[in-house]
Amino acid sequence: MTTTSSHLPPTVAAHVPTGVLVGGAWRPAHGGRTFEVADPATTEVLFDVADGDEQDALDALTAADEAFEPWRTVAPRVRSDLLRAVFDTLTRRTEDVAALVTAEGGKPLAESRAEVAYAAEYVRWYSEQAVRVDGLARRAPAGTHHQLVLRRPVGPALLVAPWNFPIAMIARKLAPALAAGCTAVVKPAQLTPLTTAFVAEIVREELAARDLPTGVVNVVPTSSARSVSGPLLADARLRKLSFTGSTEVGATLLKASADRILRTSMELGGNAPFLVFDDADLDAAVEGAVQAKMRNAGQTCVAANRFLVQEGVAEEFTQRLARAFRTLVVGHGAEPGTTVGPLIEESAVERVQQVVAEAVDGGARVHVGGERPARRGWFYAPTVVDRVSPEARLVSEEIFGPVAPVVTFGTEDEAVGLANGTPFGLVAYAYTRDVGRVMRLAESLETGMLGVNRGMVSDASAPFGGVKASGLGREGGEAGIEEYLETLYVAL
Ligand code: SIN
């Protein structure tokens, strides 16, 4: 279980738990098996991690269930203070956590630091919300009785995190869950379980230091997601599922949750349109486009997936975007100067190669990139293509890679039609100076979030989530804690 990576500081490597966390203790997986976690920039194996199975999952749920009663009944201020201490530690240890995020996920260190700060903000926000869960008391309109509306934690929750933000996505589930009084079984992504384990250890230490039940947070890494989620979803002690990942897997989990009418939150795939109108500030649009496209090398569900550009500025915008992409530096995320890291695995690179090749066969023109750089690791070059057919898979499917396809439009109505012409509705971006148009877009775009003259919407204090096939529920902001609360009405 030792790392071979020269990029991961030995002081960090020495403190990464690689087991299953059950009831406050790290231990090997029940079956004794492990799986490998690799650095996507070098393909080197970093760690062997415990490969949890059904028994580990059920042990973790037993621990979460036993911890639920004591945890839900502690004073909200105790939960708030715990989260605040975790925020402080994460902030203090930013460099260590960021090094791990880069080692297993590949993103440049500057982006990993930003992810740690983003994650910590969720923890701080929910440390503040933990003491603000309110209810209602009023006289019934008929005057016959009083109505009390109380909020209670849902219960033990299964939190399933994706690989693209190994700390931020778990923070925005775990922090509101703990703030509400829920306990958790965390299933990290198979490709990036190390950061989750490191952060879970920080939470475990803070719980233990306060003599709080350490079974509040349990972690089951696995190479077989179904062997963990299947038995948990079927177990009556589990009361909540929160999942971030693909729409396909989300639909499968929803079906599996249906028999028990389990509370679910689903943050699923996207196909974000990035609209540039003739009246846009093109400098700002290009800057926002690079940000919206290239964060984590395009591997985010809020990545701009289709650049819909009005005819009058399309050529100019495309040329400028290609110039900006030429300045990006592809490399290992820990190397100084790197601005674009690798994709997460070989199959991801192969898929991007394929959808670009199909678009080119269909008449698309490559301005920059369009190839795999000649270096070890799972890299793909930052790429701009235009003359893309709206039917091409490059724009009809989520790319999850550093490729910016440009499609042109004539009128605002046409732009809205193209933008909405997808089963997804997570986020849209629009660049325009016309406030009236902004309001029309806010009315007509089928989306859960809209960035106006901004290439980034994510913010711990705002409701993150989508409509249509992009999901159910919201994470972050005031809404995020609601996902972990039930409502009890008392007629008095
Ligand atoms: C995601 O890609 O799933 C989340 C990105 C974000 O929170 O900004």
UniProtKB/TrEMBL annotation:
Chain coiled-coil ranges: none
UniProt KW RNA-binding keyword: no
Gene3D superfamilies according to UniProt: Aldehyde Dehydrogenase, Chain A, domain 1 (3.40.605.10), Aldehyde Dehydrogenase, Chain A, domain 2 (3.40.309.10)
Pfam families (UniProt xref): Aldedh (PF00171)
Superkingdom of the source species: Bacteria
Domain Aldehyde dehydrogenase: from-to ranges: 26-487
GO biological process: gamma-aminobutyric acid catabolic process
GO molecular function, one term: succinate-semialdehyde dehydrogenase (NAD+) activity
Keyword Oxidoreductase applies: yes
Keywords on record: Oxidoreductase
InterPro entries in UniProt: Ald_DH/histidinol_DH, Ald_DH_C, Ald_DH_CS_GLU, Ald_DH_N, Aldehyde_DH_dom, Aldehyde_DH_Superfamily
Residues the record marks as active site: E267
Family: Belongs to the aldehyde dehydrogenase family.
Name under which the protein is recorded: Aldehyde Dehydrogenase
